[in-house]
Amino acid sequence: NYSLMAVLVYFIAAGVILSILYRLLTNITEPLVDINSIARQLATGRGLDEEAILTRGTLAQDELGDLTRSLGRISHNITQQEKILRARIQKRSRDLEVAAKIGREVASLYDIDTLLIRAINLICDEFDYYHAQVFLVDDVGMNAMLVQSRGRAGKQLLSQKFKIEVGSDSVIGSVTGNGAPVIVNDTNRGILPHRF
User: Can you give the chain as a three-state secondary structure string?
Assistant: First the structure.
Protein backbone atom coordinates (compact mmCIF):
# COMPACT_ATOMS: atom_id res chain seq x y z
CA ASN A 1 0.00 0.00 0.00
CA TYR A 2 2.81 2.31 0.92
CA SER A 3 4.62 1.71 -2.39
CA LEU A 4 1.38 2.29 -4.35
CA MET A 5 0.95 5.56 -2.51
CA ALA A 6 4.57 6.55 -3.27
CA VAL A 7 4.09 5.78 -6.98
CA LEU A 8 0.87 7.83 -7.02
CA VAL A 9 2.59 10.78 -5.32
CA TYR A 10 5.48 10.40 -7.74
CA PHE A 11 3.13 10.54 -10.75
CA ILE A 12 1.24 13.51 -9.37
CA ALA A 13 4.51 15.37 -8.67
CA ALA A 14 5.78 14.47 -12.15
CA GLY A 15 2.50 15.71 -13.67
CA VAL A 16 2.72 19.01 -11.75
CA ILE A 17 6.36 19.44 -12.77
CA LEU A 18 5.56 18.65 -16.43
CA SER A 19 2.63 21.06 -16.32
CA ILE A 20 4.86 23.80 -14.92
CA LEU A 21 7.56 23.05 -17.53
CA TYR A 22 4.96 23.08 -20.32
CA ARG A 23 3.65 26.45 -19.13
CA LEU A 24 7.18 27.89 -18.93
CA LEU A 25 8.11 26.59 -22.36
CA THR A 26 4.87 27.88 -23.84
CA ASN A 27 5.54 31.33 -22.38
CA ILE A 28 8.92 31.30 -24.10
CA THR A 29 8.04 29.64 -27.41
CA GLU A 30 4.78 31.47 -28.23
CA PRO A 31 6.46 34.90 -28.35
CA LEU A 32 9.35 33.40 -30.32
CA VAL A 33 6.91 31.95 -32.85
CA ASP A 34 5.22 35.38 -33.15
CA ILE A 35 8.58 37.15 -33.53
CA ASN A 36 9.66 34.63 -36.16
CA SER A 37 6.40 35.14 -38.06
CA ILE A 38 6.76 38.93 -37.94
CA ALA A 39 10.42 38.76 -39.04
CA ARG A 40 9.51 36.50 -41.98
CA GLN A 41 6.78 38.88 -43.11
CA LEU A 42 9.17 41.84 -42.87
CA ALA A 43 11.81 39.90 -44.81
CA THR A 44 9.36 39.23 -47.66
CA GLY A 45 8.48 42.92 -47.88
CA ARG A 46 5.02 42.57 -46.39
CA GLY A 47 5.11 45.14 -43.65
CA LEU A 48 2.66 44.84 -40.80
CA ASP A 49 0.94 47.68 -39.06
CA GLU A 50 2.41 48.35 -35.62
CA GLU A 51 -1.02 47.95 -34.02
CA ALA A 52 -1.52 44.57 -35.71
CA ILE A 53 1.70 43.34 -34.16
CA LEU A 54 0.89 44.72 -30.74
CA THR A 55 -2.50 43.00 -30.75
CA ARG A 56 -1.10 39.54 -31.58
CA GLY A 57 -1.78 38.32 -28.09
CA THR A 58 -0.52 39.53 -24.78
CA LEU A 59 2.96 40.95 -25.01
CA ALA A 60 5.18 40.10 -22.11
CA GLN A 61 6.92 42.86 -20.24
CA ASP A 62 10.32 41.29 -20.87
CA GLU A 63 12.97 41.20 -23.58
CA LEU A 64 10.75 39.19 -25.95
CA GLY A 65 7.91 41.68 -25.54
CA ASP A 66 10.36 44.54 -26.12
CA LEU A 67 11.65 42.82 -29.25
CA THR A 68 8.11 42.31 -30.58
CA ARG A 69 7.25 45.97 -29.92
CA SER A 70 10.47 47.06 -31.65
CA LEU A 71 9.59 44.94 -34.68
CA GLY A 72 6.19 46.62 -34.70
CA ARG A 73 7.78 50.06 -34.72
CA ILE A 74 10.25 49.03 -37.44
CA SER A 75 7.40 47.67 -39.55
CA HIS A 76 5.40 50.87 -39.03
CA ASN A 77 8.37 53.04 -40.03
CA ILE A 78 9.02 50.94 -43.13
CA THR A 79 5.36 51.23 -44.14
CA GLN A 80 5.41 55.02 -43.64
CA GLN A 81 8.63 55.41 -45.66
CA GLU A 82 7.16 53.26 -48.42
CA LYS A 83 4.08 55.51 -48.59
CA ILE A 84 6.28 58.60 -48.78
CA LEU A 85 8.41 57.08 -51.54
CA ARG A 86 5.34 56.02 -53.52
CA ALA A 87 3.97 59.57 -53.30
CA ARG A 88 7.30 60.98 -54.48
CA ILE A 89 7.45 58.54 -57.37
CA GLN A 90 3.89 59.48 -58.36
CA LYS A 91 4.77 63.18 -58.27
CA ARG A 92 7.95 62.66 -60.30
CA SER A 93 6.06 60.56 -62.84
CA ARG A 94 3.46 63.30 -63.20
CA ASP A 95 6.20 65.92 -63.53
CA LEU A 96 7.81 63.91 -66.33
CA GLU A 97 4.47 63.53 -68.09
CA VAL A 98 3.87 67.28 -67.83
CA ALA A 99 7.40 68.07 -69.07
CA ALA A 100 6.85 65.78 -72.07
CA LYS A 101 3.50 67.49 -72.77
CA ILE A 102 5.14 70.91 -72.63
CA GLY A 103 7.89 69.69 -74.94
CA ARG A 104 5.37 68.33 -77.46
CA GLU A 105 3.28 71.50 -77.42
CA VAL A 106 6.14 73.95 -77.85
CA ALA A 107 8.06 71.82 -80.38
CA SER A 108 5.63 72.81 -83.12
CA LEU A 109 6.05 76.55 -82.49
CA TYR A 110 8.58 78.42 -84.60
CA ASP A 111 8.16 82.00 -83.42
CA ILE A 112 10.43 82.45 -80.37
CA ASP A 113 8.08 84.86 -78.57
CA THR A 114 5.07 82.60 -79.03
CA LEU A 115 7.14 79.60 -77.97
CA LEU A 116 8.37 81.29 -74.76
CA ILE A 117 4.94 82.63 -73.81
CA ARG A 118 3.37 79.20 -74.38
CA ALA A 119 6.17 77.46 -72.45
CA ILE A 120 5.85 79.79 -69.43
CA ASN A 121 2.06 79.47 -69.36
CA LEU A 122 2.22 75.67 -69.59
CA ILE A 123 4.87 75.49 -66.87
CA CYS A 124 2.84 77.69 -64.51
CA ASP A 125 -0.48 76.01 -65.30
CA GLU A 126 0.69 72.40 -65.27
CA PHE A 127 3.08 72.61 -62.29
CA ASP A 128 0.85 75.04 -60.41
CA TYR A 129 3.52 77.76 -60.21
CA TYR A 130 2.41 81.33 -59.70
CA HIS A 131 5.44 82.73 -61.46
CA ALA A 132 7.99 81.77 -64.13
CA GLN A 133 10.52 83.73 -66.15
CA VAL A 134 12.80 83.24 -69.13
CA PHE A 135 16.17 84.96 -69.36
CA LEU A 136 18.35 84.86 -72.47
CA VAL A 137 22.01 85.85 -72.51
CA ASP A 138 22.73 88.84 -74.78
CA ASP A 139 24.92 88.57 -77.86
CA VAL A 140 28.09 89.70 -76.07
CA GLY A 141 27.54 87.29 -73.14
CA MET A 142 27.50 90.03 -70.48
CA ASN A 143 23.90 90.08 -69.31
CA ALA A 144 20.94 87.74 -68.93
CA MET A 145 17.99 89.66 -70.32
CA LEU A 146 14.46 89.00 -69.07
CA VAL A 147 12.51 88.17 -72.23
CA GLN A 148 9.32 86.58 -70.85
CA SER A 149 7.64 86.58 -67.47
CA ARG A 150 4.27 85.69 -66.05
CA GLY A 151 2.51 87.79 -63.45
CA ARG A 152 2.13 91.48 -62.68
CA ALA A 153 5.62 91.89 -61.19
CA GLY A 154 7.07 90.10 -64.21
CA LYS A 155 5.31 92.45 -66.61
CA GLN A 156 6.72 95.41 -64.73
CA LEU A 157 10.24 93.96 -64.95
CA LEU A 158 9.75 93.34 -68.67
CA SER A 159 8.75 96.97 -69.21
CA GLN A 160 11.96 98.04 -67.42
CA LYS A 161 14.03 95.76 -69.70
CA PHE A 162 15.36 93.98 -66.60
CA LYS A 163 18.74 92.29 -66.88
CA ILE A 164 21.18 90.49 -64.59
CA GLU A 165 24.94 90.31 -65.08
CA VAL A 166 26.18 86.88 -66.18
CA GLY A 167 28.05 85.25 -63.28
CA SER A 168 26.65 87.65 -60.67
CA ASP A 169 25.85 86.56 -57.12
CA SER A 170 22.31 85.44 -57.89
CA VAL A 171 20.50 82.35 -59.12
CA ILE A 172 20.29 83.60 -62.73
CA GLY A 173 23.87 84.90 -62.56
CA SER A 174 25.08 81.53 -61.31
CA VAL A 175 23.16 79.56 -63.94
CA THR A 176 24.32 81.77 -66.80
CA GLY A 177 27.89 81.98 -65.48
CA ASN A 178 28.36 78.26 -64.78
CA GLY A 179 26.05 76.81 -67.38
CA ALA A 180 24.55 74.47 -64.78
CA PRO A 181 21.04 74.41 -63.31
CA VAL A 182 20.36 75.67 -59.79
CA ILE A 183 17.28 74.48 -57.91
CA VAL A 184 15.88 76.70 -55.18
CA ASN A 185 13.18 74.96 -53.16
CA ASP A 186 13.12 77.46 -50.31
CA THR A 187 13.76 81.03 -51.33
CA ASN A 188 14.46 82.05 -47.73
CA ARG A 189 17.46 79.75 -47.37
CA GLY A 190 20.19 78.52 -49.63
CA ILE A 191 23.67 78.98 -50.93
CA LEU A 192 22.80 81.87 -53.20
CA PRO A 193 20.67 84.87 -52.35
CA HIS A 194 17.30 84.68 -54.08
CA ARG A 195 17.68 87.63 -56.36
CA PHE A 196 16.41 85.94 -59.48
Answer: CHHHHHHHHHHHHHHHHHHHHHHHHHHHHHHHHHHHHHHHHHHCCCCCCHHHHHCCCCCCCCHHHHHHHHHHHHHHHHHHHHHHHHHHHHHHHHHHHHHHHHHHHHHCCCCHHHHHHHHHHHHHHHHCCCCCEEEEECCCCCEEEEEEECCHHHHHHHHCCCEEECCCCCHHHHHHHHCCCCCCCCCCCCCCCCCC
Q: How far is CA 34 from CA 25, 69, 77, 163, in A?
A: 14, 11, 19, 68
Report how far residue 122's alpha carbon sits from residue 118's, in angstroms, rounded to the nearest whole number: 6
Chain segment 23-59, per-residue pLDDT in tens: 877 777 777 777 777 777 777 766 666 566 655 555 5
Whole-structure pTM over 0.70, yes or no? no
C-alpha dihedral over 189, 190, 194, 196, to 10 degrees?
-140
